[in-house]
Structure formats: C-alpha cells, structure tokens
Amino acid sequence: MCGRFAITLPTDAMARLFAARPANGLPKVPNVDVRPTTDVHVVVSGEDDRRLVAMRWGFVPHWATSLSDGPLLINARAETIAEKPAFREAARQRRCLIPASWFYEWTGEKGHKQPWKIAPVGEGPLALAGIWQGWGAGGDRVATCAIVTCAANDALQALHHRMPVVIGAEDWPLWLGEAGHGAARLMVPASNGVLNFEKTDLV
User: What CATH number is associated with residue 161?
Assistant: First the structure.
C-alpha cells in the first residue's frame, strides 16, 4: 500500500517536468510527510493541455453522503480496480499522476515500527498512478484521488507485499488517456532496479 509520501520538487519545476499548467492554491512544498485527507499535487490531462492541480487524497465515490462516509479510500488495488463500483469508471476515464519524491513503508511490531524511505534510483520524482473523482455540488465540489497499488516487486517484498504503481515518463501519455487505450498493462510492479530503500526517522 502507500499511506504516506514526500514531495520536495518546487511547483514550477513540477509543472515543467510534466508539461502541465499549474493551478492556483497548490499545496506547499517541500512536504516530507504527506498524509491522507490532505491536498496533494495531481497531474491531469484536459482537452487542450495538462494541468497540475490540488486534490484531496482519499477517493470519495459519487454516492457518498459526506467526505467521511464509508472507509478512507487512499489506495485502489490494480487487480480489482476495473471491477469495483467505486473505482471502475474513474479507472477508465479519470486517471492521473501523483508526483512523489519518495514514499514510506513500516516494518516491525506495533509500537516499535521502523519507517523506511523508498526513493527512485537517480533523478526523481516518481509519478505514481492515480485515479480521481469529483464529489459534491456547486461551490462545495471537491476533487478527490487515490493511488493505484499492485503486488510489490521482489526487492520490496521484505518491507510490504504491496507497492504503488510507478509510471515511467514514456508511459505518462498512455496513463493519462492521451495515447489511446491499453493503460491496464502499466499496472505492474516497478523493476527491481528502479527504487532504493533505507531506514529513516519519520514518526
């Protein structure tokens, strides 16, 4: 799974990297402890261009009666995303990229858990596969998102059995719906050499 992550890239650099037009009111950076229910940076593809926007991390289905109605859907499993009523339409029509400098996992017993920082090898940031959903009406409408996860690769199995889906730059157009169909093939574990992990002191 992916329950906390970091983003340290400045907003203007993020916009250039993804060739996206930045919106107003984006979250402050750097933030080395991005948590669920807070606003995160999200790249979406519009009719004419890409946009870098803020969305609430925690996907809210359109039928929810409030933002806190039901379980907190911060992750969507790649294996079932096309079948789950909450996610299937978004998986087809509303895919996004969520920039992250690194993400975290924990190992050990409750009360003595060790946090691990999982970061890209070489230049970053990571582009995590996401889906999004608007919830509410009028001025109260909120854009919400979830990170797509898959089985962990061999290197990360020692930390957790799940990991976020990482989309390589060459596949950004396909995931964002700019390059036709076939995005499902991207929902696989990252290769073993793509990520490094090390102990950290995040609490």
Answer: 3.90.1680.10
How many domains does one find in the chain?
Answer: 1
3-state secondary structure (DSSP) of residue 26: coil
In the chain, what are the helix, strand and coil shares in percent, each to the nearest 5?
15, 40, 50
Per-residue pLDDT of the chain (203 residues; tens, 9 = 90+): 789 999 999 999 999 999 999 999 999 999 999 999 999 999 999 888 999 999 999 999 999 999 999 999 999 999 999 999 999 999 999 999 999 999 999 999 888 899 999 999 988 899 999 999 999 988 889 999 999 999 999 999 999 999 999 999 999 999 999 999 999 999 999 999 999 999 999 86
Question: What predicted TM-score, i.e. pTM, was given to this entire model?
Answer: 0.97
Nearest residue to 185 (alpha-carbon basis) of 167, 164, 169, 163 = 167
Question: Which structural domain range is residue 142 located in?
Answer: 5-199
Residues catalogued as catalytic: 2, 105
Give the list of residues 6+ apart from residue 11 with CB closer than 8 angstroms, or none.
22, 26, 29, 41, 52
